[in-house]
Amino acid sequence: MNTKLNDDIIKSENSLPPAQMFAAEALQPLLEALPNGLILFNAQYRLVYLNTTAAMLLARQPEEVLNAPLREVLSDILGRVHEAGPLITALNTITNSPAGSAITEEVEVTLKGNEGENDSFLRLSFFPVEAQGPQPPGYGLLLQDVTRNYIADKLKNEFVAVVSHELRTPLSAMQGFSELLLTQEASPERRKLWLEMINRESVRLSSLIEDLLSLSRIESGRIDLRPERVELESVIRQCIEILRVGSSKHSFKIEIEENLPSVKADRDKLIQVLNNIVGNAIKYSSKGGQIVVRAGYSQDDPEHVLVSVTDQGVGITKAEVPRVFEKFYRVRGINNKEVKGTGLGLTITRNLVELQGGRIWVESEQGKGSTFFFTIPLHNFRLRDITAFKQILLKTLLVPDKDTAEAELYLDYLQRTLPSGQLDEVLRDSLYSIGEMWHRGEIGVGDEHLATNVIRDFLSRVRTSSTMPNGLKVVIGGVAGEEHVVGLTMVANAFGRAGWSVSNLGANVPLAAFLTTIEQVKPDALILSITLSQRLVEINRLVQEVRNAFPDLVIGVGGHLVNELPDLAERLKVDFHSSTPDDAVRLARQVIRAKKPSLT
Fold first, then answer.
1. pLDDT digits (tens, 9 = 90+) for 540-585
2. 253: helix, coil or strand?
3. At what angle do helices 447-463 and 485-497 cross, to 10 degrees?
4. DSSP characters for 268-309?
5. Alpha carbon distance 408, 61 (integer Å)
């Protein structure tokens, strides 16, 4: 890598604060937003700049290492590295080279984890930085946390080892018994036994391949879910009747709570979940015993049914309980060495449960058996004709130039005409249909979330009693991001519900428009939307100019970028940042109250 920066970016002799070093206004926000750590050194290998990510990886504050020599900057890494030799060699090569040498070095090191933590892996890439003009060149250092790469490699190796072993075992058995059939004379009884062995191993091989394909479909997002109204009791009894045939040592008990309603699930996937859990209960209680399957209302979540499967098997140690749903993980123990499997069943089960809106967990004690729990959403929707609502919803919310007025009128009509409590059911049923359309590719990515947000916001407003004006004013807008108009509308509605006078400028608002509106409206607060697609330099300039022109104005920001870089709000010197519309309202009022104690 050979990067050219102009002479007002790198100062070779005298170290300066970063703000003075980087005259190009657009450069610093870009460097700060890098996911990797970046450090710049002058010709004497003394630090002149490091970004936020680098400071975090070094566990040092910028002022602590400013103007520090290269080895001192990396002292913490050198102290934690398992094998320091390669890194020391690279440092010697760099520091002993003449200034301006086009030498690059790349080293990967393993860092010792703190007590109770795993080791981490870091890649250090040294590269020359040429300067234009009379200034001497410097050096750059890129720090990349590659721990995820190592974990992925480890999982890949585990996958290859497990799958190759599990594939080889049934294939070897099938090959061996088929050769016996082809080369040896045997009685009909023995030949039948060999054929049964081949059939059993082929079923096992088919099951393994199906598990691998299922996991691949889940992880790639290509799994096809078809939720419908399912009578849970009939599915449970169907699974038990099939599984009890191959398990003469076990007795089965089914306990279903009276008047339990239907659930909303993909029937085939729900059967797969039950087969996996009950099948595990059978496998890990090889000496037999009772297996109890229960289903009833969830005490913690009235919108879900709770299903549990209890066995009297070998149980799971406390240390292993958190890992049972990990990919390729199999419970270890002297009592289950003969249990065959890839360690994929529970991983697939967890994904299938979560994809259908439920959750899964296990409680166990070694030697006393295990109980697996999972929840599945209730199907509370009554059959009704909602074609008109769906048409209006799709027409107004899922096309360009969205206008929600017609949908809101229809929702208001439903609110007034439907029996109490039924509006939620109509909306959720409709959103479910929209979700189906999204999976079929009939609407675009993000549209289903847009519809959901608008409807949730409307429901919140129709359920909130009207609030008297509180005399406070707010201006809301964003400098870019047309796709976030709905988000801005939700923020505006939240302030409106709280009694504020709202001026929503929308997205792609020029700086001049903000200044003009603030001058005319004289608001108490300005709320800006920031996303990854927006221009941070313009945001920074906007905040600074508003601050200069209206020093008493409260400024807040919100958006994806603020959530991912919590220190961004501090760097922008705004009064607060928020992640939800209601938080923005609360924080804005809180800051204004601090500035104006007379505010009630």
1. 888 999 999 999 899 998 876 776 676 777 888 899 888 778 788 9
2. strand
3. 10
4. HHHHHHHHHHHHHHHHT-TT-EEEEEEEEE-SS-TTEEEEEE
5. 51
419 Cβ contact list (under 8 Å, min separation 6):
none
Burial (CB count within 10 angstroms: exposed 0-12, middle 13-18, buried 19+), residue 585: buried
Residues 74, 59 contacting (CB under 8 angstroms): no
| Inter-CA distances, 304 with 261, 273, 299, 494, 540, Å | 10, 16, 9, 30, 46
The single residue listed with the structure tokens 């490699």 is 153
**Residues forming a β-bridge with 50:** 39
Which residues, in sequence order, are bridge partners of residue 475? 503, 526
- Which range has the top average pLDDT, 34-48, 125-139, 330-344? 34-48
* Burial status of residue 282 (CB atoms within 10 A of its CB: 0-12, 13-18, 19 or more): buried
Spatial separation of the C-alpha atoms in residues 324 and 322, rounded to whole Å: 6
What are the C-alpha distances in Å from 387 to residues 54, 264, 426, 429, 430?
Answer: 55, 20, 11, 11, 9
**Residue 132: strand, helix, or coil:** coil
Distance CA 174, CA 358 (A): 40
Nearest to 339 by CA among 316, 319, 373: 316
Contacts for 296 with CB less than 8 Å, ≥ 6 apart: 255, 256, 257, 260, 305, 306
How large is the angle between the packed helices 485-497 and 581-595, nearest 10 degrees? Answer: 50
How far apart (Å, rounded) are the C-alpha atoms in residues 568 and 560? 11
Give pLDDT tens digits for 508-541. Answer: 788 888 888 999 999 999 998 876 555 677 788 8
Q: Give the C-alpha distances (Å, rounded to integers) separating 511 from 93, 197, 539.
A: 50, 77, 9
**Contacts of residue 466, Cβ cutoff 8 Å, sequence gap at least 6:** none
Residue 548: alpha-carbon gap to chain centroid: 39
**How many other C-beta atoms are found inside a 10 Å radius of the C-beta of residue 227?**
20
Residue among 577, 566, 520 at smallest CA distance from 543: 577
- The number of residues making up the chain comes to 600
d(CA 159, CA 149): 15
> Mean pLDDT across the chain, nearest whole number?
75
* The overall pTM is greater than 0.85: no
Amino acid at 274: L
* Residue given tokens 């691949």 in the structure block: 216
Least confident of 152-161, 170-179, 378-387, 430-439: 378-387
Cβ count near 84 (within 10 Å) = 14
Cα–Cα dist 53/567, whole Å: 11
The percent of residues in the chain predicted with pLDDT above 90, rounded, is: 12
363 sits in which H/E element: strand 360-364
